[in-house]
Amino acid sequence: MINKLVDKIKKTDAPVVVGLDPMLSYIPEPVLSGAFAEYGETLEGAAEAVWRFNKGIIDAVCDLIPAVKPQIAMYEQFGVPGLAAFEKTVRYCKEKDLVVIGDIKRGDIGSTSSAYAAGHLGQVQIGKSCFAGFDEDFATVNPYLGSDGVKPFIEVCKENKKGIFVLVKTSNPSSGEFQDRLIDGRPLYEWVGEKVAEWGAEAMGDTYSYVGAVVGATYPEMGKVLRRIMPKAYILVPGYGAQGGKGADLLPFFNEDGLGAIVNSSRGIIAAWKQEAYQKFGAENYADASRAAVEAMILDIRSALA
C-alpha cells in the first residue's frame, strides 16, 4: 500500500491527506436537521449526520488528493452507530480509490496488539472463512509499549501489504513532556525514530517502508533531524493549518526526491465553511468550501517545495 500512496501522491502532485474528524459543531444545520428528521436527536441521528457530512466532502475533494485520515474517536463517541459510520466512510473512500489512514493510535502487547492489527488492517478467521473488519490501508500506532506493541502490526502489514505510521514527535503543545526527555543525552523522539527505521528496514516497499512515522508540522527543526534518521520512512505530518503549521515549515520533512511526507489538515478543511475566508460559500455549500481550502493548501505546499 505504500507503493500506491507514493504513486497517488505523484499523480495528484498533492502530498495532502484530509482528516475526516467530524464534530457535530462542524456539520451545517441543513445536514444535521435532515439526519435528525429521519433518525431523531439520537446516536443514530448523529452518526447519520456525520456520514452525510463526510460523503459531501469526499465527493468534493476526492479528485484532488491521494488520501484521507478518519480519526476513530470522533466516531466512537456516538457508540455503535458511530462505528458503523466510520466503517461506511472507510468503504466509501476506498470506492473513490483514496488511500485510507485509520487514525486509531493503538498499541498494546501480544495478542491485544495482534487483534487491533487484524481488526483494522488484516483479517479475522471465523470458521473456514476470513473477513476484513474496518480494512483501512494504514493505521497510526502508539509505540510506548515498545516492540511488543508494534511488531504485530508490522506482521499484518507484510501479510496484507498495508502500512502503519508510528507516533514519533506529535504536534500537540505538551508532546515534549515525554517525547523531548533526554535519554543518554538524546531526546526520546530520536530513539523512537531509530526504532522506526529499524522496524521499517524489515518491511520495505519499492522505495519506502511500510513503517512510517508521525511528526508534527509545528516542529520543523526536529523534523529535519528525524528525516535524516528515517530516510525510508514516509512521514505523516499533522499540525498544518489550524494548529499553526504553514507550507514554509514543511520542507524539512521531505526528501530530496520531493517525496517522503504527506501533510494532514482536518478542521482547516472539513470546517472551512465556518472560516471567514470561505464564508461566501455558505452552510449549504460546505463541501465547496472544503474543496477551495484543499486547493489553497495544495498551492501553499507546492510553493514551499518549488
Write up what this structure looks like.
This protein is an alpha/beta fold. The chain has a single domain, classed as TIM Barrel, CATH 3.20.20. The chain is 45% helix and 17% strand. The chain is built from 12 helices and 12 strands. The protein has helices at residues 2-12, 29-39, 43-61, 73-76, 79-95, 110-120, 147-160, 176-179, 188-201, 220-229, 267-270, 286-305; strands at 16-20, 67-70, 99-106, 123-126, 129-132, 138-141, 163-169, 182-183, 186-187, 211-215, 235-237, 261-265. It has an 8-stranded parallel β-barrel, surrounded by 7 helices. Strands 4-5 form a two-stranded antiparallel sheet. Strand 4 (123-126) and strand 5 form a beta hairpin. Helix 6 (110-120) runs parallel beside helix 7 (147-160). The radius of gyration is 19 Å and the shape is globular. The two termini are 27 Å apart.
What is the element string, with H for helices and E for strands?
A: HEHHEHHEHEEEHEHEEHEHEEHH
CATH class bucket: Alpha Beta
Helix content: 40-55%
- Structural shape: globular
Number of strands: 12
Number of domains: 1
The chain-level structural class is alpha/beta
Average pLDDT reading:
95
Query: Poorly predicted ranges (pLDDT <50, ≥5 residues)?
Result: none
Q: Biggest sheet, strands in spatial order?
A: 1-2-3-6-7-10-11-12
Short description:
Helices cover 45% and strands 17% of the residues. The protein contains twelve helices and twelve strands. The longest helix has 20 residues.
Could you give the topology of this structure?
Elements: H1 2-12, E1 16-20, H2 29-39, H3 43-61, E2 67-70, H4 73-76, H5 79-95, E3 99-106, H6 110-120, E4 123-126, E5 129-132, E6 138-141, H7 147-160, E7 163-169, H8 176-179, E8 182-183, E9 186-187, H9 188-201, E10 211-215, H10 220-229, E11 235-237, E12 261-265, H11 267-270, H12 286-305
Parallel strand pairs: 1-2, 1-12, 2-3, 3-6, 6-7, 7-10, 10-11, 11-12
Antiparallel strand pairs: 4-5, 8-9
